[in-house]
Amino acid sequence: MHRVKNQVGLTAIGLILILIPVGLAVYIVLRVAPVYIEALSVGDAINSLKKELDVKEKSRDEIYTMIKKRLEVNNISSVEKDDVKIQKTVNDVTVTIDYEARVPLFSNIALAFTFHKSAVMR
User: Fold this and answer.
1) Mean pLDDT lowest for which of 32-46, 49-63, 66-80?
2) Which residue, 95, 34, 35, 103, is CA-closest to 70?
3) Which of 46, 44, 77, 78 has its CA nearest to residue 64?
4) Residues 49, 67: contact at Cβ < 8 Å?
5) pTM across the whole model
6) Beta partners for 95?
7) Which residues, at least 6 apart from 43, have a Cβ–Cβ distance to it below 8 Å?
8) Spatial CB neighbours of 42, under 8 Å, sequence gap ≥ 6
9) In which band, very low, low, confident or very high, does the pLDDT at 77 lie, cut at 50, 70 and 90?
10) H or E element: which one contains 42?
C-alpha cells in the first residue's frame, strides 16, 4: 500500500465548483455595468442644462426637447417622456428624471433598477 501524506492541489470538480460562482458573478457584473454607465450619462445630460443661460425663459416642451437631444446623443433609450418632470418656479427650474431599467439575465429572470436624477437650474 502506498500512502501519500502531502497531496496538494485542486481537483477538476473543485475547480468547476469554484469557477461556476465566479463566472456567474462576472456575467452579472458585465450585464449590470452598462445600466450604471447609462445612469451616469443621464445625470450628466441634465446637469449640462445648468450651463445653458436661457433655460428659465424656455417652455417645458423646449426644455424637454433639449433633454431629449442630449439623451439621444448619448444613446440612452431607457428614459421615456413620462419619466421626465420639469417644475418651473419664479427663481429656478427643477428637472427630475425617475426611470427604471431592466436587465435580462436568463430566460425569464431579470434585474430591475430604479434611478432618480435631479438638477436645479438657477
Assistant:
1) 49-63
2) 95
3) 46
4) yes
5) 0.79
6) 86, 119
7) 117, 119
8) 71, 74, 76, 79, 97, 99, 115, 117
9) confident
10) helix 12-47
Residues 55 and 91 sit within 8 Å (Cβ to Cβ): no
- For residue 100, which of 71, 74, 77, 78 has the smallest C-alpha distance? 78
Give the range among 29-33, 36-40, 73-77, 96-100 with minimum mean pLDDT: 73-77
Residue (of 104, 122, 112, 121) closest to 46 by Cα position? 121
Read off the C-alpha cell for 7.
497531496
Length of the chain: 122
Q: Which grid cell sits at 52?
A: 445653458
Q: Is 116 helix (H, G, I), strand (E, B) or coil?
A: strand
